Amino acid sequence: MSQTNKTVFPIITRAYSKENYDGHGSAFFIDPKGLFITAAHTFKHPFRDRCALIEGNRYEIKEVWSEYHDFDSQHPAIYKDLFIGRIDGLETPNHAILLEISDTTTPQSDIKILGYSVGLNNATISIDELDELNDSPSPEKLKEKLLKYQPLEASFAKPHFAHINKHSTTKYLFKNGFTIELNISEPHGHSGGPIVNAKSQVIGMLIGQNAGISSSYIAEKLLIAKSIEDDISPTFPSLAVPKTWDNEWLYKIMMSVHQKLNIKGSAYQTACEHLRFVSTDDLHLLNTPRISKQDPGFGLTEINYFLREENRIVHLVMVNPDAYKEAQLTKDEIEAILMHELGHILNTPALEKPIQVKSTSTEDLKLLMESEKEVKKVNSYNSEVYADDYVKQNGYRLPLISSLNKYLNLPTAKNRDMIELRILALTNEGSELKGSVATLTKIK
Ligand SMILES: [Zn+2]
User: Fold this and answer.
1) Which domains can be identified in the chain, with CATH numbers?
2) Residue 151 Cα, ligand 1 centroid: separation in angstroms?
């Protein structure tokens, strides 16, 4: 058996500050120019870098399309765990298996899952390699070297798959995939690998022990991915400070959110060129200090911030990686928070005004002060629930709820009452709250 395959290759994840392997998945090319498919969950850790390992060389991965929800945020009938990427500057061989649509609703016999494993649980590892691994003070370093191509035998079980999470009392049924049965228990590392039938046609992609996403669903998303690539939008949001190794994670999440919200004619598309993102770690690099002294919590937005570096007014979104790490947020949850901050800009409610008083008598001034206080409270509540509703409208309701719950678990959490109210509002799947895009002021 060959130790590598020209169509299927491993994807490595590693911590930004380290070179070492810390996990892997499998991926496969679907066009001769380096477009490939894999499972998005391999990249779910927000603070890890990723690369493809092809014939011993590492290649950078460019995200073209990605959709992913964490286990507990998956909502039927579509299971979101698909990543379409591109590796530039690589000549893929002509004999690559190209994705062929196969009707996965009919049971198929003789199916195989193609992918890479570290080879610890099977015979592909040699005795010498095993000795080297056991003797090594840092076995993780060696794992990348030990990755081997290994097809797994499987059988087709059902034309859909079921899954239980903490929000469901019964099994949720997902229709964009199918159930398989595998002969081995932990197919770690085969996630993202193609599931092929006896004719070597791709019928799906592995996402877990028992399930695959169907090729017909993948084909549908491929059309979207191709249209995104062909019609590269001239306007992108950017970081407010230069891109560095330390803020690269933010750049990736920002672009991932961009790819989801940048729909023709959307509020996001009209405003995205005025958006700037900054990590709270980089705030000291900004030439103009923030106006608001508010604690950023998970995130904070400053509408109409003067960005001296570009001599223009922008909407500044601040994101706080320390808080995300402390709360152990997933990529999915951070994306929901970014969408919430964008909601403050793109879905702003009409403001309530205080009552008008007839005189400047103590009585009237007291009434005015009370009214102002009340109105301020209502406006700030509305601003939050409209921002949350923007997240909901974009399909990130569950990740937002879980991120808010994680925030409440932090000892440093502030505004607890407000957050409880927001979770309550998000729990009710009511009608949409339609706000408007914040107006951008001009430099005077
Ligand atoms: Zn907010």
Assistant:
1) 8-229 (2.40.10.120), 233-427 (no CATH)
2) 48
Closest among 176, 205, 224, 204 to 11, alpha carbons compared: 205
Instruction: Give alpha helix (H) positions in 139-247.
Output: 139-146, 215-230
Cα(243) to centroid of ligand 1, in Å? 25
Give the SS3 label for residue 194. strand
For residues 28 and 10, give the distance between their C-alpha atoms in angstroms, rounded to a whole number. Answer: 9
CA–centroid distance, 297 to ligand 1, in Å, is 9
- Kind of pairing between the strands at 275-279 and 312-319: parallel
Dump pLDDT digits (tens) for 24-54: 899 999 887 889 999 999 988 888 888 898 8
| Predicted TM-score of the model (pTM) | 0.72
User: Which residues face 178 on adjacent strands?
Assistant: 212
Residues ≥6 apart with Cβ < 8 Å to 158: 178, 179
- Residues 12-27: tens digit of each pLDDT: 888 766 666 778 899 9
Q: What is the whole-number distance in angstroms between the Cα of residue 309 and the centre of ligand 1?
A: 26
Burial 389-405 (b: 16+ CB within 10 A, else e): bbbbbbbbbbbbbbbbe
Q: From the CA of 414, how far away is ligand 1's center (Å)?
A: 12
How many angstroms separate the alpha carbon of residue 344 from the centre of ligand 1?
A: 7
Decide if 394 contacts 339 (C-beta within 8 A).
yes
